[in-house]
Amino acid sequence: MLKKLVLEDGTFFVGNSFGSDNDAIGELVFHTGMTGYQEMLTDPSYCGQLLLLTYPLIGNYGINRSDFESMKPFARALLVREWEPEPSHYEKEQSLSSFLKEHNVVGLAGIDTRQLTRHLRDKGVMKAMITSIDRSISEVVEELLSFRPNKKVVEEVSTSRAYQAPGKGKRVVVMDFGMKHGILRELVKRECDVVVVPHNTTAQEIYRLNPDGVLLSNGPGDPKDCLEAVGTVKELLGNVPIFGICLGHQLLSLACGADTFKLPFGHRGANHPVREIKTGKVTITSQNHGYACDKNSLLNTDLEITHEAVNDQTVEGVAHRKYPAFSVQYHPEASPGPLDANDLFQQFIDLMVHTEMEAKNYVKA
Ligand SMILES: NC(=O)CC[C@H](N)C(=O)O
């Protein structure tokens, strides 16, 4: 079925729908990875967004059992140049279009994804709608201008009750703001005793779980919409080792008095180079974020910049000068993407061990 994509600034494209035939409205963002569409679709950080992929052929290995990053897709729509109706892979369970249909996610193919991406790079990400070709542009633009994305999106994606993935190693409490399963897999691989808790769990409730460390997960939306969580991180800081990933990094930054801002078109891809300030070493990272921590605002805080983006010099990692807490804007769990930064999970474990040893020495002295 022919469908129209209309952007907030009146630009429009006509394409063919696949997946659900419904309309879809949300922020239109682009991802430059060549593979990993299943992980992207099921990453809760995309909740409510329309996801445009720059790689020209999508869906050729279908949907499998192992590449889920949560139980269902969260992106509202997937926009591609071409999709593959007959996928081929030994793990394939279903095609991309039947997966999208089953979960009511809109697919749009046949549009000039290159032109659209360049437009977003020039003008910045904006709201967009996939709708009937019969609707007038001005009417859709009006609807887009009055559309307000859900500010409580973290509440929508977080677990409603705590659950455990038992292990014989360090006890890690994960605050779930829209956690990707890849984070859980990395902790379990390192034998951590993991308890995943809802986004609004208080510091007191977390202490009752006897954590050796707290991991602040990735998640959707503007970090400034999560002020309750920022308050909790403030309370936890200095009492327990903290590791933040993506939204978790932004929440740690806000809790330490820094500011965040919206990037013009975000970082979403599987090959973003990040430089470690101390060593100059560059790692290729997986990224998916629209906001970033403001460099200047860090000057009056106890955070130091540990990593920066090679492409635009924005902040990619911070560490606390006094307390055991650090965070990164990118995704060490990859899923999808390169595993160059995977060692950060070991650094978190080392930090928990070190903090425990210091506490014992302190008690002895
Ligand atoms: N993947 C994430 O955690 C994204 C964080 C935040 N929602 C942003 O877009 O910047």
From TrEMBL:
This enzyme's EC code(s): 6.3.5.5
Protein's recorded name: Carbamoyl phosphate synthase small chain
Record flagged with keyword Nucleotide-binding: yes
Positions of transmembrane segments: none
Pfam families with a match to the protein in the record: CPSase_sm_chain (PF00988), GATase (PF00117)
Record-stated family: Belongs to the CarA family.
Listed GO biological process terms: 'de novo' pyrimidine nucleobase biosynthetic process; 'de novo' UMP biosynthetic process; glutamine metabolic process; L-arginine biosynthetic process
Amino-acid positions noted as binding L-glutamine in the UniProt annotation, renumbered to this chain: S45, G219, G221, L247, Q250, N288, G290, Y291
Matches recorded under InterPro entries: Anth_synth/Amidotransfase, CarbamoylP_synth_ssu, CarbamoylP_synth_ssu_N, CarbP_synth_ssu_N_sf, Class_I_gatase-like, CPSase_GATase1, GATASE
Subunit structure: Composed of two chains; the small (or glutamine) chain promotes the hydrolysis of glutamine to ammonia, which is used by the large (or ammonia) chain to synthesize carbamoyl phosphate. Tetramer of heterodimers (alpha,beta)4.
Gene3D superfamilies: 3.40.50.880, Carbamoyl-phosphate synthase small subunit, N-terminal domain
Keywords: Amino-acid biosynthesis, Arginine biosynthesis, ATP-binding, Glutamine amidotransferase, Ligase, Nucleotide-binding, Pyrimidine biosynthesis
Keyword Nucleotide-binding listed: yes
Pathway terms, separated by semicolons: Pyrimidine metabolism; UMP biosynthesis via de novo pathway; (S)-dihydroorotate from bicarbonate: step 1/3; Amino-acid biosynthesis; L-arginine biosynthesis; carbamoyl phosphate from bicarbonate: step 1/1
MF annotations from Gene Ontology: ATP binding; carbamoyl-phosphate synthase (glutamine-hydrolyzing) activity
